[in-house]
């Protein structure tokens, strides 16, 4: 019957409208997710750049400390090559001798402090390098996620396009059926 066909077409139209509306919402969500992921990519890239600068600074600190340490070691080595008696004889005054002993102790103390600073700088360098590696892995994961979201969005867009085409085709068929029924009705009334 004409009424049943009309109701069936109406239900199918409502179902398609609901599906299209749901797809539109999915597209909006995917678009928002993509924007968020792009922001995360930018943040991670900035963090990696900052870490790279910190690593460069740590490397410079390590090189500076190694240079200072080398100078201190040379100075300590010069003093170590002289025996206590040579040092004592080199200084006629006992006060000069003890002053020189203090200088050697100060050099040794500076050497220990510089070694500690160097160890801390190396530890900081290693920490920063590991953190940069973690951030680079995180960036790869985020970029992979972004690619997946883009693919999902493209899929949803295609599905929506297919449903819209299907809906238009059904609308055309419905209009054609309606015209045919109307023509038959007119024929029946005219007879």
Which properties best describe this structure?
mainly alpha; 191 residues; 96% helix
Description:
The chain has 191 residues and is mostly helical. It has helices at residues 2-81, 84-90, 94-190. α1 (2-81) runs antiparallel to α3. The chain is rod-shaped and about 145 Å long. It starts with a helix and ends with a helix.
The number of helical runs is: 3
- The CA-CA distance between the termini, in Å, is 20 Å
Largest sheet: none
- Give, in order, the helices and strands: HHH
Layout: helices, strands, pairs:
Blueprint: H1 2-81, H2 84-90, H3 94-190
Brief overview:
This protein has 191 residues and is mostly helical. It is built from 3 helices and no strands.
């Amino acid at each position: 019957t004409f009424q049943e066909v009309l109701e069936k077409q109406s239900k199918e139209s409502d179902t398609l409208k609901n599906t299209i509306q749901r797809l539109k919402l999915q597209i909006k969500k995917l678009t928002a997710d993509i924007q968020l992921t792009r922001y995360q990519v930018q943040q991670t890239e900035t963090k990696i750049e900052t870490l790279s600068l910190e690593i460069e600074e740590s490397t410079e600190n390590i090189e500076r400390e190694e240079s200072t340490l080398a100078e201190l070691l040379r100075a300590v080595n010069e003093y170590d090559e002289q025996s206590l008696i040579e040092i004592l004889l080199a200084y006629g005054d006992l006060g000069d001798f003890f002053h020189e002993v203090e200088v050697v102790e100060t050099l040794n103390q500076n050497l220990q402090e510089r070694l500690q600073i160097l160890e801390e700088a190396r530890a900081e360098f290693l920490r920063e390098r590991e953190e940069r590696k973690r951030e680079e892995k995180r960036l790869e994961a985020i970029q992979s996620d972004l690619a997946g979201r883009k693919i999902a969005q493209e899929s949803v867009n295609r599905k929506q396009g297919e449903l819209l085409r299907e809906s238009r085709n059904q609308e055309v068929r419905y209009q054609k059926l309606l015209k045919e029924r109307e023509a038959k009705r007119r024929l029946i009334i005219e007879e």
